[in-house]
Amino acid sequence: MPEGTFCNRRPVNTEEDLKALLGDKGGAQYYKEMAELEVDVEALKASLQKTLQSRTKTWLEICAHCGMCADSCFLYRVNDRDPKQVPAYKIQSTLGEIVRKKGEVDTAFMMRTMEVAWSQCTCCNRCGMYCPHGIDMGVMFSYLRGLLFSQGFVPWELKIGSGMHRVYGAQMDVTTEDWVETCEWMAEEQQEEWPGLEIPVDKEDADIMYVLNAREPKHYPEDLAEAAILFHLAGENWTVPSEGWEQTSLTMFAGDWAGCKMQVERVYAAVDKLRPKRVVGTECGHAHRATVIEGPYWAGRPDGRTPAPFLHYVEWVSEALTTGKLKIDPEKRIKEPVTLQDSCNYVRNHGLAKHTRIIMSYIAEDFHEMAPNREHNYCCGGGGGFNGIGRYRHQRNVALKTKRDQILATGCKLVVAPCHNCWDAIRDLEEEYEIGIRWSFLKPLLISMVIVPEHLKPQEEDE
Hints:
- The chain is mainly α and about 475 residues long.
- It contains 25 helices and seven strands.
- It has helices spanning about 15-20, 30-35, 40-50, 55-60, 75-80, 85-90, 95-100, 105-120, 125-130, 135-150, 155-170, 175-190, 215-220, 220-235, 250-255, 255-275, 285-295, 295-300, 315-320, 345-350, 355-365, 395-400, 400-410, 420-435, 440-450; strands at about 210, 240, 280, 310, 340, 415, 440.
- The strands form two sheets. It has a four-stranded parallel β-sheet. A three-stranded parallel β-sheet has the order 5-6-7.
- Helix 1 (about 15-20) runs antiparallel to helix 11.
- The termini are far apart.
- The relative contact order is 0.10.
């Protein structure tokens, strides 16, 4: 069968097709069709000729098979040090084979490669830190995912995620109307406790434009309210865009390169329209990577820079604390032992560990580092799309063991996790292994301990 109704080489571009795919419960029909999906060898060859650059070719050729990347990979460690989980083996047996065979591969090979690409690598890039030749398996796996997506071999959930971005401009079905109404609703909800609080939409020339994760307005609108409260307390001149507010990119997880470009260009268009001095993104690692690290190149920006300075949320919080825009009540600091999860995407891949440590120095009295930590920390176990793929849930649960053991070693029951995927993985870790921990984003913790200026407190009515 060349292509199926659900599993095919076409990206999902219409709401009708998206709803049909969502109706295929668990992807049952999708995966049946995938088993019969023929590889378009000529198209795969053409894609290799067009996109396989000298860096990737060189990396595949110079790998010395020394195995030094093995222990850097948490998936190798939690899978009984299976040689097939060594990063070098994983990439050479998949992308390496496609390149060596010049695209002459079959359906069975592509399905095995799909499993490796999405259940044996989270693209955390830790292995690249330890390779003596500087080979970055994470970058190559991202490239491999793109080849697989172009041929229709992508997990069902990520085909849907890609379609959500293409149809709704967000990873969930949140329309512009839904989004603006949520902003109005959350602002109204806070008026009694936080008089004067607003969530300005499409305000031009603000100091800050805030962008976020679609899961927040869809499932956790209180997160948006908490962001608004903290900007309000800090006295920020800020806004959100009515369009281009979604910072995340499941298209990146899916390997949908064209979708990645479409998504980030929506955000950049909002910057061009509203002209903020800076952009602050929410507590999400992959959103930061997609918009700030990879985004400029997807958008074809020759300087490799975003159209305005972009900050991850931890950068803004660190700045607000050190400049005194936000002041912490010493009596309300976290007293119990607390540890911190380092997001791969903005710590290892963007060097922001110093900001999270500054924050912890303000809010915690008994901070315990994980071992290892900062850029050497292990992936949470759910990154790169791993959290959301039902087909690989067992492998994901095994992958959580490394983070479980790191947390247990700290002796802490509270984990600060300023990243959506990390937050989700640690939540699922507790559900799976029941080690008695709690986890939190920064926003609710900060609100619980920040000093509220008198002029921002509700005024008591005269009797």
